[in-house]
Design a protein that fits this description.
By secondary structure, the protein is mainly α. The protein has helices spanning 14-25, 29-40, 42-89, 112-119, 132-139, 142-175, 200-215, 227-239; strands at 97-100, 103-106, 193-195, 198-199.
Length: 240
Protein backbone atom coordinates (compact mmCIF):
# COMPACT_ATOMS: atom_id res chain seq x y z
CA UNK A 1 0.00 0.00 0.00
CA UNK A 2 2.81 2.38 0.81
CA UNK A 3 4.75 2.42 -2.41
CA UNK A 4 5.44 0.88 -5.76
CA UNK A 5 1.83 0.89 -6.97
CA UNK A 6 1.97 3.98 -9.16
CA UNK A 7 4.28 5.61 -11.64
CA UNK A 8 5.56 8.53 -9.60
CA UNK A 9 7.05 10.45 -12.52
CA UNK A 10 3.75 11.64 -14.00
CA UNK A 11 2.34 14.81 -12.39
CA UNK A 12 -1.20 15.98 -12.96
CA UNK A 13 -1.99 18.70 -15.47
CA UNK A 14 -3.51 21.93 -14.06
CA UNK A 15 -6.93 21.06 -15.49
CA UNK A 16 -6.97 17.55 -14.01
CA UNK A 17 -5.71 18.92 -10.71
CA UNK A 18 -8.55 21.45 -10.69
CA UNK A 19 -11.08 18.68 -11.36
CA UNK A 20 -9.66 16.57 -8.53
CA UNK A 21 -9.76 19.50 -6.12
CA UNK A 22 -13.32 20.37 -7.14
CA UNK A 23 -14.49 16.80 -6.53
CA UNK A 24 -12.73 16.74 -3.16
CA UNK A 25 -14.17 20.05 -1.99
CA UNK A 26 -17.62 20.17 -3.58
CA UNK A 27 -19.84 17.23 -2.67
CA UNK A 28 -23.46 16.72 -1.78
CA UNK A 29 -22.94 18.98 1.24
CA UNK A 30 -22.88 22.01 -1.05
CA UNK A 31 -26.56 21.43 -1.78
CA UNK A 32 -27.42 21.52 1.94
CA UNK A 33 -25.41 24.65 2.82
CA UNK A 34 -28.29 27.11 2.13
CA UNK A 35 -30.48 25.15 4.55
CA UNK A 36 -27.71 25.15 7.15
CA UNK A 37 -27.18 28.91 6.73
CA UNK A 38 -30.90 29.52 7.16
CA UNK A 39 -31.04 27.42 10.33
CA UNK A 40 -27.83 28.62 12.01
CA UNK A 41 -27.80 32.27 10.94
CA UNK A 42 -25.26 34.39 9.12
CA UNK A 43 -22.88 35.03 12.04
CA UNK A 44 -22.44 31.42 13.15
CA UNK A 45 -22.38 30.07 9.59
CA UNK A 46 -19.81 32.55 8.28
CA UNK A 47 -17.63 32.08 11.37
CA UNK A 48 -17.62 28.29 11.03
CA UNK A 49 -17.00 28.41 7.27
CA UNK A 50 -14.09 30.81 7.81
CA UNK A 51 -12.59 28.59 10.50
CA UNK A 52 -12.94 25.46 8.36
CA UNK A 53 -11.44 27.26 5.36
CA UNK A 54 -8.44 28.29 7.48
CA UNK A 55 -7.95 24.74 8.76
CA UNK A 56 -8.19 23.41 5.19
CA UNK A 57 -5.54 25.91 4.09
CA UNK A 58 -3.26 24.84 6.92
CA UNK A 59 -3.58 21.13 6.17
CA UNK A 60 -3.00 21.84 2.48
CA UNK A 61 0.27 23.59 3.27
CA UNK A 62 1.29 20.65 5.47
CA UNK A 63 0.67 18.21 2.63
CA UNK A 64 2.57 20.40 0.15
CA UNK A 65 5.50 20.64 2.55
CA UNK A 66 5.50 16.86 2.99
CA UNK A 67 5.40 16.35 -0.80
CA UNK A 68 8.33 18.74 -1.24
CA UNK A 69 10.34 16.88 1.41
CA UNK A 70 9.45 13.55 -0.21
CA UNK A 71 10.58 14.79 -3.62
CA UNK A 72 13.85 16.00 -2.12
CA UNK A 73 14.46 12.70 -0.36
CA UNK A 74 13.71 10.66 -3.49
CA UNK A 75 15.94 12.92 -5.55
CA UNK A 76 18.82 12.60 -3.07
CA UNK A 77 18.48 8.83 -2.92
CA UNK A 78 18.49 8.63 -6.69
CA UNK A 79 21.55 10.87 -6.86
CA UNK A 80 23.40 8.76 -4.29
CA UNK A 81 22.54 5.61 -6.23
CA UNK A 82 23.81 7.18 -9.45
CA UNK A 83 27.06 8.17 -7.74
CA UNK A 84 27.51 4.62 -6.48
CA UNK A 85 26.84 3.22 -9.93
CA UNK A 86 29.22 5.73 -11.52
CA UNK A 87 31.98 4.90 -9.06
CA UNK A 88 31.51 1.19 -9.67
CA UNK A 89 31.47 1.53 -13.45
CA UNK A 90 34.48 3.87 -13.58
CA UNK A 91 36.67 1.79 -11.26
CA UNK A 92 38.09 -0.14 -14.22
CA UNK A 93 39.28 3.02 -15.99
CA UNK A 94 42.27 5.22 -15.36
CA UNK A 95 42.03 8.55 -13.54
CA UNK A 96 42.15 10.60 -16.73
CA UNK A 97 39.18 8.79 -18.31
CA UNK A 98 35.48 8.67 -17.49
CA UNK A 99 32.51 6.87 -18.94
CA UNK A 100 30.15 9.14 -20.87
CA UNK A 101 27.12 7.54 -22.58
CA UNK A 102 28.72 4.12 -22.59
CA UNK A 103 32.15 5.04 -23.99
CA UNK A 104 35.51 5.96 -22.50
CA UNK A 105 36.48 9.61 -22.96
CA UNK A 106 39.12 11.89 -21.40
CA UNK A 107 38.24 14.09 -18.46
CA UNK A 108 38.74 17.22 -20.58
CA UNK A 109 35.70 16.30 -22.69
CA UNK A 110 33.25 16.28 -19.76
CA UNK A 111 30.77 19.17 -20.03
CA UNK A 112 31.33 21.68 -17.23
CA UNK A 113 28.00 23.44 -17.76
CA UNK A 114 26.02 20.30 -16.99
CA UNK A 115 27.65 20.10 -13.56
CA UNK A 116 26.94 23.76 -12.87
CA UNK A 117 23.37 23.39 -14.11
CA UNK A 118 22.79 20.42 -11.81
CA UNK A 119 23.97 22.46 -8.84
CA UNK A 120 21.17 24.97 -9.39
CA UNK A 121 18.39 22.37 -9.14
CA UNK A 122 15.95 22.93 -6.28
CA UNK A 123 15.67 19.49 -4.72
CA UNK A 124 12.44 20.48 -2.94
CA UNK A 125 10.72 21.29 -6.22
CA UNK A 126 7.60 19.10 -6.59
CA UNK A 127 8.03 17.35 -9.92
CA UNK A 128 7.02 13.80 -8.95
CA UNK A 129 3.70 12.51 -7.67
CA UNK A 130 4.17 10.86 -4.27
CA UNK A 131 1.16 9.16 -2.71
CA UNK A 132 0.27 9.76 0.94
CA UNK A 133 0.91 6.14 1.90
CA UNK A 134 4.38 6.33 0.42
CA UNK A 135 5.09 9.58 2.27
CA UNK A 136 3.91 7.99 5.52
CA UNK A 137 6.35 5.10 5.05
CA UNK A 138 9.14 7.58 4.29
CA UNK A 139 8.71 9.87 7.31
CA UNK A 140 6.96 7.76 9.98
CA UNK A 141 8.01 4.74 11.94
CA UNK A 142 5.89 1.60 12.05
CA UNK A 143 3.54 3.01 14.68
CA UNK A 144 3.07 6.22 12.70
CA UNK A 145 2.34 4.31 9.50
CA UNK A 146 -0.27 2.18 11.29
CA UNK A 147 -1.87 5.29 12.78
CA UNK A 148 -1.97 6.90 9.34
CA UNK A 149 -3.81 3.95 7.83
CA UNK A 150 -6.18 3.79 10.79
CA UNK A 151 -7.10 7.44 10.21
CA UNK A 152 -7.63 6.78 6.50
CA UNK A 153 -9.78 3.71 7.26
CA UNK A 154 -11.95 5.62 9.75
CA UNK A 155 -12.38 8.52 7.32
CA UNK A 156 -13.27 6.27 4.39
CA UNK A 157 -15.63 4.19 6.54
CA UNK A 158 -17.52 7.31 7.61
CA UNK A 159 -17.60 8.59 4.06
CA UNK A 160 -18.91 5.28 2.74
CA UNK A 161 -21.47 5.06 5.54
CA UNK A 162 -22.89 8.41 4.46
CA UNK A 163 -23.25 7.26 0.86
CA UNK A 164 -24.58 3.85 1.93
CA UNK A 165 -27.33 5.63 3.82
CA UNK A 166 -28.07 8.49 1.41
CA UNK A 167 -28.09 6.62 -1.91
CA UNK A 168 -30.45 3.76 -0.93
CA UNK A 169 -32.77 6.17 0.88
CA UNK A 170 -32.95 8.44 -2.17
CA UNK A 171 -33.64 5.48 -4.46
CA UNK A 172 -36.30 4.23 -2.06
CA UNK A 173 -38.01 7.62 -1.99
CA UNK A 174 -38.12 7.72 -5.79
CA UNK A 175 -39.12 4.07 -6.23
CA UNK A 176 -41.87 4.28 -3.65
CA UNK A 177 -43.51 7.21 -5.40
CA UNK A 178 -42.34 10.10 -3.25
CA UNK A 179 -41.44 12.63 -5.97
CA UNK A 180 -42.51 15.72 -4.01
CA UNK A 181 -40.00 18.52 -3.57
CA UNK A 182 -41.22 18.82 0.04
CA UNK A 183 -40.37 15.22 0.78
CA UNK A 184 -38.29 16.25 3.76
CA UNK A 185 -41.36 17.61 5.57
CA UNK A 186 -43.48 14.53 4.84
CA UNK A 187 -43.08 11.78 7.41
CA UNK A 188 -43.52 8.19 6.30
CA UNK A 189 -43.65 5.02 8.32
CA UNK A 190 -41.05 2.43 7.36
CA UNK A 191 -43.71 -0.27 7.54
CA UNK A 192 -45.87 1.40 4.89
CA UNK A 193 -46.27 -0.38 1.57
CA UNK A 194 -43.94 0.46 -1.29
CA UNK A 195 -44.67 -2.20 -3.96
CA UNK A 196 -47.60 -4.25 -2.83
CA UNK A 197 -46.36 -6.52 -0.02
CA UNK A 198 -42.89 -4.93 -0.09
CA UNK A 199 -42.53 -2.38 2.71
CA UNK A 200 -40.46 0.80 2.55
CA UNK A 201 -37.73 -0.57 4.80
CA UNK A 202 -37.58 -3.73 2.67
CA UNK A 203 -37.13 -1.58 -0.44
CA UNK A 204 -34.34 0.28 1.37
CA UNK A 205 -32.60 -3.01 2.15
CA UNK A 206 -32.91 -4.11 -1.48
CA UNK A 207 -31.31 -0.90 -2.74
CA UNK A 208 -28.65 -1.12 -0.03
CA UNK A 209 -27.75 -4.65 -1.15
CA UNK A 210 -27.57 -3.53 -4.79
CA UNK A 211 -25.41 -0.56 -3.81
CA UNK A 212 -23.06 -2.82 -1.84
CA UNK A 213 -22.78 -5.43 -4.59
CA UNK A 214 -22.07 -2.82 -7.26
CA UNK A 215 -19.53 -0.71 -5.36
CA UNK A 216 -18.12 -3.26 -2.90
CA UNK A 217 -15.77 -4.96 -5.40
CA UNK A 218 -14.13 -1.60 -6.14
CA UNK A 219 -12.46 -1.76 -2.72
CA UNK A 220 -10.29 -4.60 -4.07
CA UNK A 221 -9.36 -2.81 -7.28
CA UNK A 222 -6.29 -0.70 -7.92
CA UNK A 223 -8.05 2.22 -9.60
CA UNK A 224 -5.52 5.00 -10.23
CA UNK A 225 -6.04 6.18 -13.80
CA UNK A 226 -9.24 7.97 -12.84
CA UNK A 227 -8.90 11.15 -14.87
CA UNK A 228 -11.95 10.58 -17.06
CA UNK A 229 -13.97 9.28 -14.12
CA UNK A 230 -13.15 12.44 -12.17
CA UNK A 231 -14.11 14.64 -15.12
CA UNK A 232 -17.44 12.78 -15.46
CA UNK A 233 -18.07 13.11 -11.73
CA UNK A 234 -17.32 16.85 -11.84
CA UNK A 235 -19.66 17.26 -14.83
CA UNK A 236 -22.51 15.42 -13.06
CA UNK A 237 -22.06 17.54 -9.94
CA UNK A 238 -22.21 20.73 -11.96
CA UNK A 239 -25.42 19.49 -13.58
CA UNK A 240 -26.91 18.76 -10.16
Amino acid sequence: MAGGITETGEPYSPFVGLVYMFNLIVGTGALTMPKAFAAAGWVVSVSLITFLAFMSFMTTTFVIEAMAAANAQLRWKRREQEEVNDSDSSSDYSDDEVIIRGRSEPVETRPILSVQRAANIDHFDIVERVEMGQMASMFFNKVGVNMFYICIIVYLYGDLAIYAAAVPVSLMEVACGNHSCSAGSVKYNDTESCWGPVRRKDAYRVFLAIFTLLLGPFTFFNAQKTKYLQILTSLMRWIV
